[in-house]
Amino acid sequence: MLHGRDVERARLAALVDGARQGRAGTLALHGDPGTGKTALLDDLAEACHGVTVLRTQGIESESPLAFASLHRLLRPLLPRLDHIPAPQAGALDLAFGRQDGDAVDPFLVAVATLSLVTEAAEHQPVLAMVDDAHWLDAASADVLLFTARRLDADQVVLLFSVRDGQGTSFSHPGVPSLLIRELDDASARAVVEDHLDAGAKDSVTTDRVLRQAGGNPLALVELSTALTSDQLQGAEPLPVTAAMERVFLDRARRLPERVQRFLLIVAADDSGRVATVRRAAEILAIPDRAFAEAEASGLMLRAGDTLRVRHPLVRSALYQAAPTSLRGDVHRALAAALEGVGEPDRQVWHDAFGADGPDAAIAARLDGAGVRSERRGGHAAAADFFERAAELSPAADLRAERRFSAARNAWAASLTARARSLVTAARGEADDPSLLADIDRLRGRIEVNVGSAATAHRIFVSAAVAAVDTTPARALDLAVAAAGLAAYGGDSGIRLDPAIVIRPGGDPDDSRARTLHDLLLAMTAASQHQWPQAVERLRDAAQGAVDGDADLLAHLGQAAVHLGDDTTAGHAFAAMLGTGRQSGAGMTVLYALPRQAFPLFLSGQWSAVRRSADEAHRLSTSVGQPALSATPLAWLALLAALRGEDVAPDLRAELDEVVEHHPLGILAAPTADLIRWADGARAAQAGAAEVAIHHVTQMRVPALTRMAAIDRITAAVHADQPEQATEWLGELVPFAQGTRWPWALGAVEHARALLSPQAAAPAHFEQSLTHYVNAARPFDLARTHLAYGQHLRRAQHRVDARLHLRRALESFEDLRAAPLSAVAARELRAAGETARTRDVSTLVQLTPMELQVAQLVSQGMSNKEVAAHCWVSPRTVGFHLRNCFAKTGVSSRGELAQLSLG
């Protein structure tokens, strides 16, 4: 019986009831060791009927074995793998070592887990419980947290138990938590009464137990049964963890030595298999009767062919108290016991624990385990294997190579500080030119993402020069990365002559190298304001890009945004996004979505921008990468400003928190500029010209200052700062004349109209419109119609003014740019025409997820296909689709396809 846990039990039961009704539930139970988290999970599992119960446990010594805990959880569902998409099923088979093959993306493993669990829940509700989550291997933890955050309208409950304190950690943002506190006095007293021997049930003994245990259920039980009255007297209460470890250790030390050694094997073992432990005991010449004696002690529990210690504190007490030499003997025995059972990674990890110093043979086996873990997508585990391999490697060159491998995998696992430390150590020992180039590329990537973009630029330039003679292909990659950084606020001031890294007479069949050549020349020409040459080289690069090469598409798209080539940028990022979706590469999708927003925004596809930004925000939350939500949130803020919508307070608070507390690297500058643009637009709408100019003056990224050119120059004119407007126009003119982009030429003429004498303005407006007709930038075109209409109305040319104001109003309404729609309507009325504005209250207001589902369904996708595209369950798709039908008033997919949604 669980005393004093009625509230907690009711909370858990409610989650299961909700799941039966199609509302998924997640919860992390956390608290001090021994507070009864596991007991609550046991109680819930026993109480649930008609539910598929899945269970796993984090094991401290198992942390370097990728997906070990996840494998235990999903093992009962693996026969259903053929019910989920084949690429996802294959990812799980590879992750669990059931098949060999190419490297698997860990994101695809996470998506597959979500699909498998929710598919099982279509037949019967699923209760998945993860005990000791703080000791999960990192790969399992990432997958399970992703699953928890993506569950929605599913018959699934996912529970974690997490130990607080003592250096353990299990960060679970996005997952609700429940603190399991100590028992109240009455409940604690009831526990003691249940467990004290009849002869010891007196108030003095009870009070002593209560004083020592402090309301901790495990301590109450163990102290009631394990300590004598004399032991309970006197001293102040110890911290519960220390007290319980002392109790367990004291119990163990009362046992014969053979039993203590057997229990140490169980504590050091991470397989949980009876056969492995007994074989290790045999190797150490421990008598077979020690098994039964250990079980009888109550410190070891057996269930079928599995063994475990009674509580994690038993493991820590026994293991930490054992001499180092004895622990080494035990690990070597466990390694020997695993010989021939098909678990080389587990075996070599025990051998590594037993190593007394450098050992080339063990290091080589650890390296092999690292390679296998990396191929399975277990990057954190791979980092552990490679790092330990480096520590045991006698040769400096192998130490450097293995430390770099550890750093690369630590970075892939988002272990930033560890990756930095490892790559720095690797560079100190490396002397191979190819390895040095790879090390510097990783150093630069880390700086790009979480450090100084200028520092990254400096690293890339120096590394490119150093690699020219020995690894020219790497030198070219590094040079292109440096050129891209310089365009987005990461210029260190060091110049790299492209001639140094571009070798004449390269392989004519190497299209990737040719594309990189062209990109480098394009970005170098742009940095020197040689715009015609830059555009020409960009066009050449676009001809050679391959859709499946995500890295190359990223370089091409970024260069196209910088040079104002909307078409190339749109194609590059759309291809990159398609590549990521098709392969299940979640980070590629997460990278592409906010960048695709640039061409989508400029081409007037604002609802698509909203969908992309919202999906990127949800995805960054799901994968536990809050820094990657900054740019999507900034896009949402800009759209809300231009549409006159309030930003949800929680989203703006999240944006501010991310910008302030998370390193954004190269994303910092464009994110800040989007926010400044949004704040400037809101100020301009409120008539606060001085505030508007303050915000837009701080914009720094050239691509964004050119995108916002009309806003910035208009703000300067309204703030009575013609000198500032003229300066910005002067920066735009050579770009427009050099690139000959119609949108840039249109912006120049628009600005000239604002700065010209009244009589000269119409000619510039007419020229601007002529250019914008050939540019797919409807917002800027509408801005020009509005400004021209305002000018004509003030000049008393009302009939001509109405034509332009009417076109502006129509475009703004199409974009749902309510503030400027209101301005255009007001100007139309002043020009003598009754403006027929659309009633925005009649527009269908769908959530971003509903919009995405509606759009994909309208393209003819089934619920399963939409689910695979969005990385949610089919049931969740059905839930959002029903909401779409209810809000739009339609009842079929065909009718939905006829609607204009956004």
UniProtKB/TrEMBL annotation:
All copies of domain HTH luxR-type, residue ranges: 839-902
Keyword line: ATP-binding, Nucleotide-binding
SUPFAM superfamilies xref list: C-terminal effector domain of the bipartite response regulators (SSF46894), P-loop containing nucleoside triphosphate hydrolases (SSF52540)
Keyword ATP-binding carried by entry: yes
GO biological process: regulation of DNA-templated transcription
GO molecular function term, any single one: adenylate cyclase activity
Stored Gene3D superfamilies: P-loop containing nucleotide triphosphate hydrolases, Winged helix-like DNA-binding domain superfamily/Winged helix DNA-binding domain
GO cellular component entries: cytoplasm
PROSITE patterns (UniProt xref): HTH_LUXR_2
One Pfam family here: AAA_16
Superkingdom assignment: Bacteria
Coiled coil segments of this chain: none
Name this polypeptide is given: AAA family ATPase
